[in-house]
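I wish you would study the pair of lines that follows with an eye to the fold:

===
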Amino acid sequence: MSTNIHTVVGLVADTNTGQIREHNEDDYIIIPDVIATESRDFGNDSYVLGSAGCLLAVADGMGGAAAGEVASQSTTYIIKKYLATNKYEKPTPQEIKYVFEQLIIHSHKNLLKLIESYPEYKGMGTTLVMGWIVDYRAYICWVGDSRCYHFRQNQGTRLATEDHSWVWEMVKKGLLTQEQAAVHEYRNIITQCIGDSEHPPTPSFVSIELERGDKLLFCSDGLNTMVSDEDINWHLSQTVNVKLTAQQLIAAANQAGGEDNITVAIIEVLEKPIESYTGSKQSIWKKMKNMFK
């Protein structure tokens, strides 16, 4: 008996300007098949993962005017371009980390070149959180305070990432609780971003073994500054499709004030790998006969 990897997932992403901002500086991408091979479509935004897995990313641009949009959209473009020209059919954990590092490096250099060519873009940058899901494991990389939450049935939701921010540094030092950090006046001060010429980004990494029913939520801080972790957990715990969950999370952030752009990307593990026989038809028949002896 062998295991054929046919992990079925639900995928969705959406973004919203919010109630206060005049334009949207967030961006996102979902690549259902990183190697761009044929995938079976189960409908309702569900996919069978190929050997290269799928990738989700959320970028939260900053810099004012159109600069924030340039930073986030340029970064997601670099990701798509890099993965289109560098193929990893069956990526190892080491290769995935290498690719993540290269994506951060290329994105950072690209923004610095844009700032050099267009002085009006000075001060722009972007956060980035990415998830590469292969088989039943998620590999997560981030810079800044865009987050990934991990929901598991019967265990609830936990924060899988640690913000690169001033308040999170205070939390790790024991000087603030997570609840205090969520409402602190300096909660928007980040310690890392892509595009900062004085402080090149140093991404963080984590990997998570997934189970059937697990959900990963990637989001910009326009969600978690408006919606509490407790309420995020409630939404993720509902047995609805991920498309509706994304809509409800964005609506909740807007109902709470919508003070920033809101972007969410969600993956849900729907099915486990399928075990199948690889022996001859005769051997399978013998096994079937033995079952009825």
In short: The two ends are 21 Å apart (CA to CA).
